[in-house]
């Protein structure tokens, strides 16, 4: 099991990108600097807090690793400094989607690795991966009182997370691909699938139609 | 303490019934298949995730027992397959209330058994039982942005959970009734009390009246 | 580390005051007696449940210490008994703000003490203190479907919590002041800062202005 290890910079990368995305949402919700930081924090480490605090009974790394809080503070300050620019640029929405498309699979891969290490059976590993990947976004939506994106019909997202999780588990467990390589491939697969979904606007549908 | 054990099929039964009920709510909220599964999952194992992950510091069984996720997937697919039928039948509301009236006390009994096993004092045991019984429903309401049923005046529910919890603790701890028998009696008591509440529409009232 | 100990009555005091404040909010939201108790419970021990159940992997004291549940029940019954009076008095809003100004730093101090005892590094200690201090209020807002006060521009609150946390850590860790004395000084500093904020209505502003 010693070899099965996703480097911590995957987690730093994902945390910074989700913190930016949470801070931008806070900006648009007319929050003050505290709200920007709180939403950056919840969006970026909410998934790992659920993963560790609720599912795996570990102390969440935001408490034990001194890198996370400065990273989230930096993302919050960056967004606060550039706030006029960010509010004006229509390119920002595209940027947020793009960084989410990197951050989500990175979190999912780290979550699956920890769940495997804790001896959780495979269906549970996928669940922990999915919660790690989308948990922060769901908490963000709940706290700003929006229907969580995961419950709404729209562009494929959760199914892409599920697909990427299966790719990662197949690569590492069945094909014995090196974990770091498998993690990068998974992030690549998710990123491409997600960009295609956005480009062609592939949508899921509610099971019940109106009318 | 070895004899004090509620069989796991109580938990499977309650999980399946609450998963159906969560999936039906998702259907009516115009969710897609992902939303139906997410709401079935949260409604059915939300209580046990709070119980284990937050209160008792155990790994939630949805991760460790490979039965739960297939059970919840099956309930989601069943509701998805029958969706037109379910949307049309007025009998479904009654069915959901009925299965909730079985699932709630089953979860409460399992929760109390685990809390007793962890050496929690009696008031805490009742709290863990109540959270196990109503937690999934509260999380479901929060995530679909409704005021949680437990906060709203309406038909007696939480007080019936409290009453059933006291029945279970009296039977097992004071009267030394066999745990499995006590669990079935508790479920029966809750079911009858709840059906009477629905039949005669017994209501609680807000402390403050308007006007 | 044995000497580093905040007496438990700080926690009882804060719990009772937040339970009153939660119960009063429930009263105004037209809840029944169950809703009043649930909101009193969530507001008063929500912060410590997050602190212990999610962050520090301890069993929350509301389960293990038999004082909390009777304390919260007493606060709920008190508010229920005096409900007509409470609804009429404009002085109640001021009273709620005042008790929150005592309860918040008391919870923050207890949280920081536990986090230090668990070997968490200083930025994490401040985070645990802040979550302990404001967590219950945030959960209360989420469950009654209001935008959490912490996200809204308005009177300084979170920044005062942060300032008080730094005061406590400076006193205990750098200046080696006795913990009980430091806790009282911290509560006093927070109380005065908060009362000044309310008196002069010091406000934070959204980063983005409308128009």
Task: Report on the architecture of this protein.
Three copies of one chain form a homotrimer. Chain A has nine helices and no strands. With 211 residues, chain A is mostly helical. The first copy, chain A, has one domain. In chain A, helix 6 (91-117) packs antiparallel against helix 7 (122-143) and helix 7 packs antiparallel against helix 8 (158-174). The model of chain A has no long low-confidence stretch (mean pLDDT 87). Chains in contact: A-B, A-C, B-C.
Q: Kindly state the mean pLDDT of chain A as a whole number?
A: 87
The ordered string of helix (H) and strand (E) elements of chain A is: HHHHHHHHH
Q: Which residue ranges of chain A are poorly predicted, with pLDDT under 50 across at least 5 consecutive positions?
A: none
Figure out the total of helices of chain A: 9
Structure class of chain A: mainly alpha
Number of strands of chain A: 0
Q: What is the makeup of the main sheet of chain A?
A: none
Please give the most extensive interface between any two protein chains, plus how many residues each contributes: A-B, 30 and 34 residues
Radius of gyration of chain A: 17 Å
What's the quaternary structure here?
A: homotrimer
Provide the β-strand percentage band of chain A: under 5%
What coarse outline of chain A follows from CA principal-axis ratios?
globular
Q: Can you tell me the number of structural domains of chain A?
A: 1
Q: Into which percent range does the helicity of residues of chain A fall?
A: over 70%
Determine the N-to-C terminus distance of chain A: 55 Å
């Amino acid at each position: 099991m010693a070899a099965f290890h996703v480097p911590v910079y995957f987690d730093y990368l994902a945390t910074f990108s989700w913190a930016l995305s949470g801070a931008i949402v806070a900006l648009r919700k007319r929050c003050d600097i505290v709200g920007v930081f709180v939403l950056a924090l919840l969006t970026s480490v909410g998934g790992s807090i659920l993963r560790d605090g609720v599912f795996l009974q570990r102390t969440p790394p935001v408490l034990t690793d001194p890198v996370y809080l400065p990273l989230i503070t930096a993302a919050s300050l960056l967004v606060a400094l550039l706030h006029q620019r960010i509010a004006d640029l229509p390119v920002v929405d595209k940027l947020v989607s793009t960084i989410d498309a990197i951050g989500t699979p990175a979190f999912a891969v780290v979550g699956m690795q920890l769940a495997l290490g804790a001896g959780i059976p495979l269906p549970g590993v996928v669940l922990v991966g999915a919660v790690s990947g989308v948990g922060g976004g769901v908490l963000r939506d709940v706290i700003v009182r929006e229907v969580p994106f995961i419950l709404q019909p729209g562009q494929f997202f959760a199914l892409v997370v599920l697909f990427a999780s299966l790719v990662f588990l197949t690569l590492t467990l069945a094909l014995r691909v090196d974990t770091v390589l498998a993690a990068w491939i998974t992030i690549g697969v998710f990123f491409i699938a997600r960009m295609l979904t956005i480009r062609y606007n592939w949508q899921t549908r509610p099971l019940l139609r109106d009318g």
